[in-house]
Amino acid sequence: MKPSAPSPRGSLGHSLVQRPPKGDFDAIVIGSGIGGLVAASLLAREGGQRVLVLERHYRIGGYTHVFTRPGYEWDVGVHYVGRVSKGELLRSLFDRVSDGKLEWVSLPDVYDAIEIRERRFEFHSGRAAFIEGLAPHFEGKRDALERYARLITATARKVQLELINRVARPNTARISAHRLAPSIPEWAQKTTRQTLTELGFDQLQLAALSGQYGDYGPAPARSSFALHAAVADHYLDGAYYPLGGSSRFAQTIVPAIEAAGGHLATMAEVKRIVLDGEKATGVELTNGRVFNAKTIISDVGGRKTYAEMLPEAQRPRELLEALERAKPSSAYLCLYLGMNATDAELGLTGTNLWLHPHEDFDANIERFENDVNAPFPVLYLSFPSAKDPDFQ
Fold it and tell me: Are 192 and 226 in contact (CB under 8 A)?
């Protein structure tokens, strides 16, 4: 990241100690990640509700926040976003919660480059360009490439419909394990490796098409093709970055929350959710302070919410057992580097780079899990300053 002059980008909200929340609230949101911010914004905008957002970190925004060191700035977790061109549903949602003030810029035509043992595979924006760019590496398999492109889009649509159907089912307020973890549809049970092998791709071609697997976690032999398809299709028409950096998410979403009388408090860690019988009525912070509201929304994940924040006697046993069966994916280490040079001087274009030591991704992971001195199973390089023309 290139050195920057001081900028207004950064945290919003106020420390719980510096500016304590006052008065009554209609809703409380635990966590200020993008899900919590959007939920709070919609409650404020659509319902005129006074919302209290509680964030244990010292910055609002979760993985959308930025941090700085003298002369430098980095985004924490926003690398690229798909499906935000004009007319897309996701774009409409962001326009709604930001009053259209969250602007987007396109990444280069090649948004992802997959490098495997010095072989480079480029993902071009748009279905036709995507196929044309890969075709030279898939000699005699152009038809299979076209079937693959159609299949990821069809499967991604099934994923969307499945999620909508689950959310829209009646009595969703009564959460139960079987409702949260119903049987997996048959079309989602095949792995990425199985599906791509059945399409006729060899090991290297399979690796090229799944080279983004770090975006969703499990390597081809362990990931559902439905998960792979949802991510691959998400970027098929190109990728985007927020103009002004990832702090623009909070900067454009928070004003509506505060305009409705809402309050965003940092350094405010929730210890437990307060219940009256089976109904959530408030939250207790680690400092002992209690806030009450008729609606409590947790944006800190199912495991932490149900296994840590509910009174032990009222934790849903079946749900906790289901969460225990959901094994974690591989962890990753993120290194933020500041470079005292311009993007042009360094030859950075904004294309994301995925570097793999070998085309057998599953073996790469297993080798590293058994020996941390083995080559990293994958390296991902992202250059936000090259993606954001406002940065200069």
Answer: no
- pLDDT tens track for 58-116: 999 999 999 999 989 999 999 999 999 999 999 999 999 999 999 999 999 999 999 99
Which residue spans within the chain are E strands per DSSP? 14-15, 27-30, 51-54, 66-69, 72-75, 81-82, 104-106, 110-116, 119-124, 239-242, 263-266, 270-276, 279-285, 290-292, 295-298, 352-356, 379-381
Compute the distance between CA of residue 213 and CA of residue 94 in angstroms, rounded to an integer: 26
Distance from C-alpha of 192 to C-alpha of 222, rounded to nearest angstrom: 8
pLDDT in tens, 161-210: 888 887 776 554 444 444 444 556 777 899 999 999 999 999 999 999 99
- Catalogue the E-assigned strands of 22-159: 27-30, 51-54, 66-69, 72-75, 81-82, 104-106, 110-116, 119-124
- 201, two tokens: 């791709």
The residue whose two tokens read 């994916």 is: 329
pTM, entire model: 0.90
Give the Cα separation of 254 and 99 in Å (integer). Answer: 11
d(CA 255, CA 233): 32
Closest CA relative to residue 350, chosen from 391, 315, 313: 391
Q: Residue 330, class by beta-carbon neighbours within 10 Å (0-12 exposed, 13-18 middle, 19+ buried)?
A: middle
**Residues 75-88: b if buried by 16+ CB within 10 A, e if exposed:** bbebbbbbbbeeee
